[in-house]
Amino acid sequence: ISNQTSRIAELEKEKNEFDAKINELQKQTKTSLFVEGDTDVEYLNKAAELYPEWKQILDSIEVKAKNGKGDLSKYWKNRLQIKEFIKNPIILLFDCDTNQTDEDDGLVYKRCVPTQDINSIKKGIENLFADDLILDAEKLGNKKFTQKSIPNADETNKQKWCVINDEKKNLADWICNNAQENYFFKFEVIFNLIKD
């Protein structure tokens, strides 16, 4: 009986989450872009501020931060149940490191930011920023925002960088507070995904 009670509670929680998603979807009045987190929204807003053509695109949609790729995956997984409640397109934008494939299902679009192989940060939206910018942020901000791997002696150009989780917001704040147009030029890939 305790197993059944536990399972009932689990199903009740899933139902409540599902009802909340349906309620959110019914309130939409324009295309929604769901991104993995708050820093994604911060970067997109700053990029749009610097590029007028991107501002027009961003002004025409509603951007919402979700809680990582797991949250976005739940929307995609439950799309069959929520499709009838969707009145406007929803774009689920996954970071480059999620290995998602672009797919369409009715008004639900799953998109993945293409990896910028030239940049050393391989995870998250920060992959769109050049290494020089990250190094400048650490030097001028007098703060370490990334961890850098030690490459093998025969592969010195294979160093990988990872944004320290607790520093993700601080890095975003530094970049946005010191923003220059050239910092965000790679964000064109995201605005093209939205536009298309």
The global form is: globular
Detail the poorly predicted runs.
none
H/E element sequence: HEHHEHHEEEHEEHH
Secondary structure: helix percent: 40-55%
Strand content: 5-15%
Rg, rounded, reads 19 Å
Structural class: alpha/beta
Please count the beta strands (DSSP E, at least 2 residues each).
Answer: 7
Largest sheet: 5 strands, mixed
What is the tally of helical segments?
8
Q: What do the pLDDT scores average to?
A: 88
User: How far is it from the N-terminal to the C-terminal residue, by CA?
Assistant: 52 Å
Spatial strand arrangement across the major sheet:
2-1-3-5-4
Describe the 3D structure:
A five-stranded mixed beta sheet has the order 2-1-3-5-4, with helices on both faces. Strands 6-7 form a two-stranded antiparallel ribbon. A hairpin with a 2-residue loop joins strand 4 (103-105) and strand 5. The radius of gyration is 19 Å and the shape is globular. It contains eight helices and seven strands. The termini are far apart. Helices cover 45% and strands 14% of the residues. Helix 2 packs across helix 3 and helix 2 packs parallel to helix 7. With 196 residues, it is an alpha/beta fold.
